[in-house]
Amino acid sequence: MTADLAELTGVALLTSRNPADPADVLLRIPAPGGFAVADAVERARAAQAGWLRGGAAARSAALGAVAAAVEAAGPELAALAVREVGKPLTEARAEIARTVAIWRYYAQAPFEPTGAVHDTAAGPGLLLTRRRPYGVAGLITPWNFPFAIPSWKAAPALAVGNTVALKPAPEATACALRLAEIVEKELPEGVFTVLPGGATEGNALVSAADVVSFTGSTAVGRAVAAYATARGVPVQAEMGGLNAAIVLPDADIGQAAAHIAAALAGYAGQKCTATSRVIAVGAALDPLREALAEALRAVPAGDPADPATVCGPLIDERARDRVAGAWQGLSALAGGTLPSGPGWYAAPTLVEKVPAEHPLLHEEVFGPIAALLPADDLAQAVRITNSVPYGLVTSVHTAGLDTALYCLDALDGLDTGMVRINAPSSGVDFHLPFGGARGSSHGPREQGRAALDFYASSRTYTLSPAETT
Question: Which residues contact 140 (CB under 8 A, 6 or more apart)?
Answer without folding.
Answer: 167, 202, 205, 206, 212, 213, 214, 215, 216, 224
